[in-house]
Amino acid sequence: MPATNRIMKESQKFERIVTNGLKFGAHVSTTGGISNAVTNAYNIGCNSFAMFLKNPRRWDAAALKPEEIEKFKENCKKYNYDPLKDILPHGQYFINLCNPNSEAHEKSYRTFLDDLKRCESLGIGNYNLHPGSVLKGGDHEKGLKQLASYINKVHKETEFVKIVLENMASDNVVGCKLEDLRDVIEMIEDKSRVGVCIDTCHSFAAGYDLRTEESCKEFWGHFDEVIGYKYLSGIHLNDSKGPLLSNRDLHQNLGLGFLGLEAFRIFANNKLDAFKNIPIILETPYNTGVGDEHYGEEIKLLEWLNGKTNDDEEFKEKEQNFSNKGSQERSEQSKKFEKKQVKRAADKEKAAKGTKRAKKGGIDSFLKKN
Questions:
Q1: Which parts of the sequence are annotated with region: Disordered (predicted)?
Q2: Is 236 in the active site?
C-alpha cells in the first residue's frame, strides 16, 4: 500500500498511515482527561476518532477544566488532527429530543446544548447524535418536527458545530429509514450545520444489504437520491451480530458477523469521493483486556483490505478464518431471529383477526339498529 509521511514514536503501537484516502479511526477512551483521547487515537494509528465528551450514562458532569481544553488543542496540533474535520464525538445515550414528554425532552435539550458547547470549547466541528424515539404510540411526524425545532434552536445558541444525525437499526426509532433523516434536514434552517453519519451495522439491521458490490452500489445510490452525498459527514464501520432486517443494534467485530469481511473489503476499495476526508469510525466490541488496542488491529485490517480483490487467495483465507470464528454466535443469533419472526407473524395474525371481529361486530350492530 502506498504510504508517505509515516511517523512512529516509541509510545506508538500502530503506525499511522496518513496518505490513505479513507480516514479510518475508532471510538477511543478519555480516561484520565479528554486530552488523552488524542494520544490514544494516535497510538493505535487513527486518522480520525470519536470519544464521549462526558460520561454517556449520566445527565450531569463537571465542566471541562481550562488546562484540559488547552492540552487537548495542543495534542491535536502535535499529532496532526484537525478537530474541525477529524473528530466526531458521540452524544450521550440519554438524549432523546423526540420524546413526547415535555419535561424529558427539555432535559435532553439541556445536556445536548452542554455537549455542543463542550465541542466548541475544544474547537471540534462535528457532533454525532442519535435522532431519538417518539416512544410507543407516539406521533412519528410530530417527533421529526420536534427534533428539527431543537436543532434549529441549538444552532442559534452555538456558533459553528455541525449536528451529524446517525441512521438507526430499530424500526421503532427515528432514523431507521433514510427518509426520516431527509425529512429532518428539510426542516433545518441552516443546512450547512447538519449532516448524516451512516452506521453499517444499523443499516444492515434496518434492511439495507451491504454484502455485495451490487447491493452496496444500490444502497449508496439510494442514499444520494434520498439525502445527498453533500450531507455525508461520518461513517461508523461495524459488523452486525444480527441478521439482515433484525432491527437490532448489535455491533460485531469486523468479519465475524452477518455482514462478513467481504462487506468491508468492498468499503475499503470504494472510489466514492464522498468517503474521503470524513471520519470513518470503528465502534466494534472490545476484546477483553485489550481496550483501544484492538481497534489498532482492525484499522490495520481495513488498510490491508485496500487493494485486495475478492478472488485474492490471502483475502479468501482470511475471510474464511473470520467467518469460522464467528459462526457459533451467528447460529445463535439466527435462532433468536427466527423465533422473533414467528412471534411477529403470530402477533400480526392475531391483530388482523381482532380487526376483522371488530368490523363484523360493527356491521352486526348497525344491522340490528336498522
A1: 314-370
A2: yes
Catalytic residue among 27, 118, 155, 202: 202
251 catalytic residue (yes or no): yes
Residue 236's alpha-carbon distances to 196, 282, 298, in angstroms, are 11, 6, 13
Q: For residues 71 and 109, what is the distance between their CA atoms, to the nearest angstrom? A: 28
- With respect to residue 16, please indicate whether it lies within any of the assigned structural domains: no
Q: What is the rounded average pLDDT for all residues in the chain? A: 91
Q: Quick one: pLDDT at residue 7? A: 46
Beta strand segments in 57-157, E: 126-129
Question: Angle formed by the axes of helices 313-369 and 260-268, to 10°?
Answer: 110
Please, what is the Cα angle at 218 between 212 and 223, to 5 degrees?
A: 125
Q: Which of 303, 297, 266 is nearest to 284 (CA)?
A: 297
Here the cell at position 275 is 468517503
From the candidates 15, 120, 209, 283, which is the catalytic residue? 283
Is 118 assigned a catalytic role? no
142 in a structural domain: yes
Annotation says 222 is catalytic: no
Q: Is 194 a member of any domain?
A: yes
Q: What is the pLDDT of residues 68-83, one digit of tens each?
A: 999 999 999 999 999 9
pLDDT-derived band at 1 (thresholds 50, 70, 90) equals very low
- Segments forming the whole domain that contains residue 135: 23-318
> Grid coordinates representing 160?
459553528
Kindly state the average pLDDT of the residues 229-253: 97
Q: Is 292 a catalytic residue?
A: no
Domain count, the chain: 1
Query: pTM, whole model, 2 decimals?
Result: 0.91
In the structure, what pLDDT confidence band is assigned to residue 146 with cuts at 50, 70 and 90?
A: very high
Mean pLDDT, rounded, for 344-361: 68
Does residue 326 lie in a domain region?
A: no
Can you say whether residue 132 is alpha, beta or left, with left for phi > 0 and alpha for psi between -120 and 50 degrees? left
